[in-house]
Amino acid sequence: MDEDYEKFKGIISEEEFENLIKEKIKNVGGLLTREGAVAIIAAEHGIDLGIKEKKERIKIKELQEGMNNISIIGRVKKIYPIKEFENGRVGNIILDDETGEIRVALWNDRTKILEKLKVGTIVEIKHGYIKKGFRDALDLNVGNRGVVEISNISMDLPEIEEKMMKIGDINEELRDISVAGRVKAIFDVREFEKIDGGTGKVGSIILKDDTGEIRVSFWNEKTDILDRIKKNDILLLENVYTREGFNGYEIQAGWQTNVRTNPEDIDLPEIKEEFVKIAYLKEGAVNVRGAVKEVLGVKTFEKIDGGTGKVGSIILADETGEIRAVIWNEKADILENISSGVKIKIENARVKEGMEGLEIHVNRSTELSVDISYEKKIKNLEKGKVEIMGRISKIEDKGFFLMDESGEIFVETNEKYNMGDIVRVSGEFSEKIIAKEIEKLEIPFPSLEELKNPKRGKIGDKGMVIVRGVVKSKIEGEECCGVVIDNGIEEMEGIVFGSPKIGEEYLFKCMVNNSKFTCYDFQKIDILREAYIILDRVGENG
Question: DSSP secondary-structure letter at 390?
Fold first, then answer.
């Protein structure tokens, strides 16, 4: 008796069994192996063939609903993002061999391998099972018993190359492409009403590579990525499509899009901000910076769709000239907090011919921020070469701790110094500073006591103090914000690293110079606690 027939004995005759095998193989043009035909017949008759390993791997075209303990090898054709559920997660890939392709669902811990996969990777799957999935198509599932591994066995699999596009080559509507670039600008997420009455979300960025730049729109749940990326991050976008927008072709990232941030195998030059002087502006996209010479106010108007729009304008000036900047809709809200003399940066704006010459137009695709300049301190050091000044707050065997008004950091050095010395340190910074050169200074600088325990002061006091005030206005910058605080009697302008809320009262630990302050640490006031402190002071004074 044929060994393959043993499981079918008593269910169908051996002759019928052999005829069914021939029929299955014939139905797929001879591409089905005998083992594959036996597996299909077993699935049709509800027969479990056991979990022993197959003698040879099955081909994609041989797969049938109900088959289990599947072993298969193929190349990754597409990679989809992981979806989270209340009790687990799933990630999908499309696997391809010389006979066809199939969606593979990787469940829970099996999704970890997705970080290592890219289009064209050969993977081997063991102990998978087949069931119908999306639109009744067959899916190969890899669950708790399943194994998925990267393989070096090619088995004459067809080559698959990722459909990588350079941004400069995107000049038509395309589907299922991959694009890599650096983030040049990030724009706010906005909500909209869907056709079915539901609410959708869309946010966008400007992505740039060595051939050009393009707008990328992220839809609905994909907008979450905008909270996790920053300028100059490298993004690899897989399974995106393009369509024509107002200013040329745009990339669309939907639910099928897989987003990889700063992948190790992609290197692109960092984006350096290039700003054009006002006298040299021409029509087209532009970055410009300057000081506000005059605020011309905001007006409302009725849009074509019946809604209400807003438009405001300012006169922007630099050392080469001045120009009118027209600011549209929600972007015009910033004019409430801008006054003459404030320096601003406008990125990804458009210069157009207006009634009285060239104008800068600021819309939802434009990034407008206050151009806040500040001295580098310990809290905002960036990795690489640094130069920083402070007081030595603690001596250690292999160096010392350096403190300024923003924080404290360890400096590694063999040179010996005294507690309280004021020094300027040059070196390499990562988690600590490895000193290359240290210079001892004799300059005015807050004492260690002032740095560690600044006294409560009032608006107008100089030096290192804790000031109480309500945030009256705020303008966001890239790393900090410009604020005006008010204590009920007088106001003071300053820079805050963080994001205090307008209308709320805080204690600001700050350095005050020339009637302006810089704050690296603040806390919202506990009204009840403050009342007890005042009562205690009154009691101490009799």
Answer: E
pTM value surpassing 0.70: no
d(CA 313, CA 359): 10
| Rounded Cα–Cα distance for residues 476 and 417 (Å) | 40
Cross-strand bridge partners of residue 464: 511
pLDDT band at 53 (very low <50, low <70, confident <90, very high): very low
What is the rounded distance in angstroms from the CA atom of residue 389 to the CA atom of residue 421?
11
Q: Which pLDDT belongs to residue 193?
A: 86
DSSP 3-state of 32: coil
- Among 24, 61, 29, 30, which residue's Cα sits nearest to residue 44? 24
Residue position matching structure tokens 């050392």: 319
Burial 350-381 (b: 16+ CB within 10 A, else e): bbeeeeeeebbbbeebbbbbbbbeeeebbeeb
Closest CA to 218 of 233, 201, 199, 193: 201
Q: What is the pLDDT of residues 192-225, one digit of tens each?
A: 888 888 899 999 999 999 998 899 999 998 999 9
Instruction: Say if residues 324 and 281 touch (Cβ distance below 8 Å).
Output: no
**C-alpha 132: how far from chain center:** 35
87 band by pLDDT with thresholds 50, 70 and 90: confident
**DSSP readout, 141-175?**
EE-SS-EEEE----TTPPP----EE-GGG--S---
CA 190 – CA 181 distance, rounded (Å): 23
Cα distances (angstroms) measured from residue 388 to each of 381, 434, 479: 9, 12, 18
Residue 485, judged by CB atoms within 10 A of its CB (0-12, 13-18, 19+), counts as buried
Token reading at 146: 């399943």
Q: Which two tokens mark 286?
A: 């532009």
User: 58 near 70, Cβ under 8 Å?
Assistant: yes
- Give the tokens for residue 486: 């008010």
Q: How many Å apart are CA 68 and CA 141, to the nearest integer?
A: 9
Dig out the tokens for 272 from the structure: 């350096």
pLDDT digits (tens, 9 = 90+) for 365-386: 788 887 776 678 998 888 889 9
523 alpha-carbon distance from chain centroid: 28
Q: Which two tokens stand for residue 314?
A: 């300012």
What DSSP element (H or E) covers 18?
helix 14-27
CA 191 centroid distance within chain: 19
509-to-270, 346, 449 alpha-carbon distances in Å:
35, 31, 14
Alpha helices in 66-187 (DSSP H): none
DSSP letter, residue 300: E
- The alpha-carbon radius of gyration of the chain (Å, integer) is 33
Helix axes 14-27, 34-44, angle to 10 degrees: 110
d(CA 406, CA 464) in angstroms, rounded, equals 11
Given pLDDT bands bounded at 50, 70 and 90, which one contains residue 29? low
